[in-house]
Amino acid sequence: MTAPERALLPDALRGLALGGILLVNLQNFSGLVPWQQTGGDRVAQAFVDFFANGKWISTFAMLFGAGVWLLVRRAGRGREARRLLGLFGLGLAHGFLIWSGDILANYALVGFALLSLIRLPPAVQGVVAVLGFLLGAALFASLTLISGSPQADPSSVGVNFAFASPDITVVSAARIADFNTSLSSSVPFFAPWLLGLFLLGVLFARSGVLTHPDRFRRPLIVTALVTFPLGVLLNVALVRANASDLFKDQVWAVLLRLSGGLTFALLYGALLALLVAGGRGALLRLFANVGRLALSNYLLQSIVCTLVFYGYGWGQYGRWGATACLAFGLGLYAVQIALSALCLTRFDRGPAESLLRGFYRSRPVKDAP
């Protein structure tokens, strides 16, 4: 008996999301400060803010929630809990040993909360999703206020020049301290927003739009028509706010990043779904290959970027502007497209996916009631 064919849309969205997330993460990897960009770098920063900042992380989070729901339906909550435990372990290793900006541990922790809500009626999940998103936005803005003015404290936007040190012990100490701070203080602020997006993904998966977009053409068209003008307004405002070093503008930038990010995430999803529904999604298979190896590709991005920017590698931290980061990100992503296609000609999954799968399928588990 052959395995059922994977749906194209979720993998393609996940693959594109990895590219968009890389463009934004390069700000952290490189030590770039958005409002200090001028000339061509200012244009490149505006491009990333408008098209990527907040958009693809929202997409990725919704797809994670959809994936949890599909796996629970297929294998039960017990096995999914074990998968989340394995993901948490990978996240800890990633955060402590490679890059402090890890999202895997956060996803796993909030994923356990999602499991407790996974079988609620869709209407209840929808209410919790909206409340979680709104609470998360308020908490994110509060965290920015607590962190203080980024002019006085560059670390509030992720800049830490200890990463430029050629001494690997100095870099490691800074990474461990940053990741500890992220887990202990950022997660409580991060969790409601993330849970809201997870639940939205669950609702999309339950509706069938991710697997059968051809049945949802009219709602998808309406979604695109509504989110396009709204998203343009929000993201133009984000570009303006992120170009300012005024503290109040940085607080507004947080709210615009979340709202504009979700709006454009829904727009991107609707447009790609319409392409698939119309039978014009052949090109998307290149991105779907990246999405099928999402975990391996995400970790590879961290390994390559820390070697390029951190002092124990090429030592480019704090030296690149937004244009160089954008070009590098697009180039690295192009390489990942090629490597993913090559890998899938010989293997069913990537090395990180195989490691995680081996962990959560290593022994039978009893499903929770």
UniProtKB/TrEMBL annotation:
InterPro entries (UniProt xref): Bact_Transport_Assoc, DUF418
Pfam families hit by this protein: DUF418
TM regions (residue ranges): 12-30, 50-72, 84-117, 123-145, 157-177, 189-208, 220-241, 261-283, 295-314, 320-344
Domain DUF418 per the UniProt entry, residue ranges: 204-358
Superkingdom: Bacteria
| Record carries keyword Transmembrane helix | yes
Q: Which UniProt keywords apply?
A: Membrane, Transmembrane, Transmembrane helix
**This protein's name:** DUF418 domain-containing protein
- Organism the protein comes from: Deinococcus yavapaiensis KR-236
